[in-house]
């Protein structure tokens, strides 16, 4: 299945974090085994030469006009020609393998499952996990704390964190048009609401320790579309 999967990864001027993300993912699932690996660098002047030398088969794209996270996703998803997408960002560390096996199984057997979370069960930004007959899902009615930000209201489980998804659900999805005027978690929440309205939910793996952790705390990059 991995050879029918395209990795799409958004990056923005943090070459050390990007290198670590790719290296740790490669240690779990060799990048060369995927059909393609695409990286969008929203700061083209960033020096990623070391990473390019290490992974010469990785393909790179960059904005030609107005940048931003959602525009980057449109570019990356537009390159996908495989039935599976492994979505990622440049500030994650993978520390376990075999997460793709469970992810493929969940998406193959649950047609209304949109994606599979890979984080530890105690590392979900306070979003609740619910047990169902088919496995663990992210609760559709979760109310995470505002943490000093405006209330998120009802959160539907969609995430731009690393995870597997079917390409067909995103074949005609326009990230930019769907999130006009929104950036950051607000855009993410809006995407989740749109897919919830279509009857989708998000799952999480059965491994309580998870497979990935966030490494970008304290090094946040403002969305260039903001």
Overview of the structural elements:
With 226 residues, the protein is an alpha/beta fold. It is built from 6 helices and 11 strands. The strands form 4 sheets. The chain has a 5-stranded mixed β-sheet with strand order 3-2-1-4-9, with helices on both faces. The chain has a two-stranded antiparallel sheet with strand order 5-11. A hairpin with a 2-residue loop joins β7 and β8.
Strand order of the largest sheet: 3-2-1-4-9
Provide the residue-averaged pLDDT: 89
Tell me the radius of gyration.
Answer: 16 Å
Q: What's the quaternary structure here?
A: single chain
Determine the N-to-C terminus distance: 37 Å
Q: Which class best fits the helix and strand makeup?
A: alpha/beta
Q: pLDDT under 50 segments (min length 5)?
A: none
Short synopsis of the structure:
The protein has helices at 15-28, 49-54, 69-78, 99-109, 175-178, 184-197; strands spanning 5-11, 36-41, 59-61, 84-89, 92-94, 113-117, 129-132, 135-138, 163-166, 201-204, 212-214. The chain has 226 residues and is an alpha/beta fold.
């Amino acid at each position: 299945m991995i050879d029918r999967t395209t990795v799409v990864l958004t990056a923005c001027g943090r070459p050390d974090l990007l290198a670590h993300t790719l290296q740790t993912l490669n240690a779990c699932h060799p990048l060369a085994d995927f059909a393609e690996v695409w990286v969008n660098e929203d700061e083209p002047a960033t020096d990623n030469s070391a990473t390019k030398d290490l992974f010469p088969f990785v393909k790179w794209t960059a904005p030609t006009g107005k940048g931003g996270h959602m525009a980057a996703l449109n570019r990356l998803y537009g390159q996908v020609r495989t039935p599976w997408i492994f979505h990622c960002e440049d500030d994650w560390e993978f520390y376990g393998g075999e997460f793709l096996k469970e992810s493929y199984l969940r998406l193959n057997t649950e047609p209304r499952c949109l994606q599979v979370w890979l984080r530890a069960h105690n590392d979900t930004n306070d979003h609740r996990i619910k047990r169902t007959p088919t496995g663990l899902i992210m609760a559709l009615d979760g109310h995470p704390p505002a943490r000093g930000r405006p209330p998120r209201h009802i959160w539907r489980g969609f995430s731009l964190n690393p995870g597997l998804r079917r390409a067909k659900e995103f074949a005609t999805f326009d990230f930019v048009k769907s999130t006009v005027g929104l950036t950051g978690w607000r855009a993410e929440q809006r995407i989740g609401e749109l897919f919830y309205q279509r009857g989708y939910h998000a799952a999480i793996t059965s491994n309580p320790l998870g497979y990935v952790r966030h490494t970008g705390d304290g090094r946040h990059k403002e969305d260039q579309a903001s």
